[in-house]
Amino acid sequence: MKAARKKLWGWYFFDWATQPYSTLMLTFVFGPFFATIASEVYMGSGLAEQAADAKAQSLWSLCLTIVGLIVGFGAPFMGAVADVTGRRLPWIVGFSILYIAGSMSLWWTQPDGSNMLWMLCAFGVGFIGAEFALIFTNAQLPSLGPTKLIGKISGTGFAFGYIGGLVSLVIMLLFFLEQPSGKTLFGIDPAFGLDAAQREGTRFVGPLTAAWFLIFMIPYFRSVRDTPKDPSPDRVYQALGTLVETLKGLRHKISLSAYLGSSMFYRDALNGLYGFGGTYAVLVLNWELTYLGVFGIISIIAAALFCWVGGKIDAYTGPKPLIIITIWSLIAVCLTVVCMTREQIFGFALPEGSNLPDIIFLCCGIMIGGMGGILQSASRTMMVRHTDAENATQNFGLFGLSGRATAFMAPALIALVTTLSGSARIGVSPLILLFLIGLFLLRWVQPKGDQEGCA
Predict the structure, then answer these.
(1) Quick one: average pLDDT of 372-385?
(2) Rounded Cα–Cα distance for residues 156 and 151 (Å)
(3) Which of 70, 81, 143, 287 has a CB 3.0–4.6 Å from the CB of 239, allowing a cystine?
(4) pTM for this predicted structure
(5) What CATH class has 2-444?
(6) What angle do CA 382, 387, 393 make, to 5 degrees?
(7) Are 182 and 197 in contact (CB under 8 A)?
(8) Is the Cα torsion angle 313, 315, 317, 322 positive or negative in sign?
(9) Where are the domains of the chain?
(10) Distance from chain centroid for Cα 148
(11) Distance separating alpha carbons of residues 221 and 147, to the nearest angstrom
(12) Taking the alpha carbons of 158, 160, 164, 166 in that order, is the dihedral positive or negative?
């Protein structure tokens, strides 16, 4: 029992260790920071502000598109190899190195944008490491407890991870991230003598993310172990054959096929919200990074609380009802974001200087964090109901494929609509369509998945 609890808490610490890449790098600090740099570069080349914002968002979209393609098409094969050899930890170590290297490199981001393309590549390398490592650790979920407790375990893991993201964001805001005055939210100079004029406090997000990962992955590596099998080349060929047979067999597994298709669309839309929520705030609402950080704290607290409660509900109702409710909630959020500017909301004019858009977007952030957290947790539980322990990594590789094979779609559609409309706000609208397609395909997903007797 003690060994099982140690393994479980070690697995939880993976979420704690990796969450800052999503919280600090993707959504609340580096992503918006990069967007402002790129926009200023394009304005300096002669573009109007709205056109520069749109081009900056399109460049960010391209990076997320390429990352999504790499992860999506590599995940199933690597998962199959890991299953037949019984070796997952070496893969996790390898992708951890990418995570750390990509994160650390962002320290050299220049505020004048002179190396912004290189830094975008560095961000992509780290993000690839984070996404691949997540696939292999997700595959360990079925072995952590009985089926009836998987939803609770998944929700608790996400909640614990969000708390880690929250703590890292608070540290960033209080001690490093500069306000326009050059002081942090604590009213002090950035720690370690960092130069606010060179945005070194903001750029420290990279080293902080890397150090956080290095420290908090220790409990994971100390408590989680592999069960090695025969590592011979024949086993690798067997992995490829098994993957091919699995893909062929999908046509006979209607519920699994429908679920993979559904999650392909709605998770792509959710990743779009995470990837562009922060850039929307700085490009459309003109928020400062520190204000965005406070917004992030509130939304992460909501995410952690919602995930914890959602995991308990999942244990009683199963994951499918939660998935449906959260998708509808996120559709409402997207409609609100698309129909709001500084000057109007849903066509109704606002007084000059009104802070109503800020309040509404804050509420949207709570919904994105809370409902998005539940959606991810419930999706992981639903995948467990469609898999078995022998091929867990391969099946979660397919799950990763469904979430990433079309990960180019949301960024690409956002880039296309942003370019055609010349508006970063209108550019977010394709996410609504992706959520609706995912919702439609859920009709063929069985609540108990492919496992008989699931509670």
Answers:
(1) 86
(2) 8
(3) 81
(4) 0.76
(5) mainly alpha
(6) 105
(7) yes
(8) positive
(9) 2-444
(10) 26
(11) 24
(12) positive
